[in-house]
Write a structure and sequence with these properties.
- With about 400 residues, the protein is mainly alpha-helical.
- The chain has 2 domains: about 110 residues, D-Maltodextrin-Binding Protein, domain 2, CATH 3.40.190; about 220 residues, no CATH class.
- About 65% of the residues lie in helices and about 5% in strands.
- The protein has a 5-stranded mixed β-sheet, sandwiched between helices.
- Strand 4, helix 6 and strand 5 form a beta-alpha-beta unit.
- The longest helix is centred in the middle third of the chain and has 39 residues.
- The protein is elongated, with a radius of gyration of 29 Å.
- The mean pLDDT is about 75.
Length: about 400
Amino acid sequence: MKSNTLTIIKKEFARFFGDRQLLFTTVIMPGLLIYIIYSFMGMGMEKMATEGTNELVTVCVENLPVSVAPLVDGLPSTTVSQQPVSQEDIDKLKAKDLNVVLVRFPEKFDEKVATYDPQSFEPAPNIEIYYNSANNASSRVYHMLEASLSSYEDQLSNRFDINRIESVEDQFDMASQDDVLGSILSKLIPMLILMMLFSGVMAIAPSSIAGEKERGTIATLLVTPLKRNELALGKVVSLSGIALLSGISSFIGIVLSLPKMIQADAAGLKLGLHYTGADYSVLLLIIFSSVLIMASAVSLLSALAKDVKNAGTMITPFMLVVMFCGLMPMFQSGASQNLVAYLFPFYNSIQAMTAVFAHEMKWLPVIVTLAANVVYTGIAVWGLTRMFNSEKVMFSK
């Protein structure tokens, strides 16, 4: 009995270690992928933490008092300009045209602080600091300055206020509702869309090609007068169309549910009003080009697989790569400004969608993304055609 058990163990070990593909996907690939993905995530988080720290920010100060001047001058990566804070400067800050923080001190600030009685219930001297939280550099300097002034305020037993709200019109963060909503959506929606599209492709592509190989029905198609490139293109387009319907359905569900998820109604945000018809049209083109390359790549892997189960194993690393690309917007601020980034499949789609949702869309990156996805789809269709022409691939067991 013991010898029979050892025989079974040896047989299973021989089967496992003799199958290089199974050995790689089971033993080597998980640790390798985790190392690669976590390394890139760590790099992304480091970049997010340091983003904007080297950008020079101008701190425009009105009525800079002598007592506070060392605190303002000591801020890193800043230049101090003593000038009146104008409405024009505030408008430029709101439009994110300038890396600035605007600070307005009351006249004779030191004298008012020295004579102020905290027990008098009179309003304390108020320092107004205008910034834009959608601008990393402006937000960084604001938080450093606010922390320094708060520490100084504690030393003086709370003899002045910072950004005291006296009426509903008072606004010191110049980030608009579009900026706030765009920042939230650009980090969430592209990832969700990509995952929904990939789920749709995964649900149908392996059974359409690897499944037909497993059932033997692929042979019937291959002996017909149908050209192999027509067969490959027909498979990719039909699978893309079905997956696109799944993706659009998921996208509609996300859009309808998102206001509740982020409490947009409570915040007074109207989701549909923040994006134009052009934004939705570009988004649809990006989604369609993404699902084309996704379906063609999964079809290519499915053609290599022996059966549906084997196809699922081969597609797993590809799925993790797509997931990793989807997570990237969470570790960056806005879309990439490097045009080269829009040449890489899936990452380019994520960056282009991020730009649309963040109201940062530019036509050149979008065009590069669409063109790259079409080229990669063409390459994958060509590869699939070659596989359909190979009896060794199509009839492997």
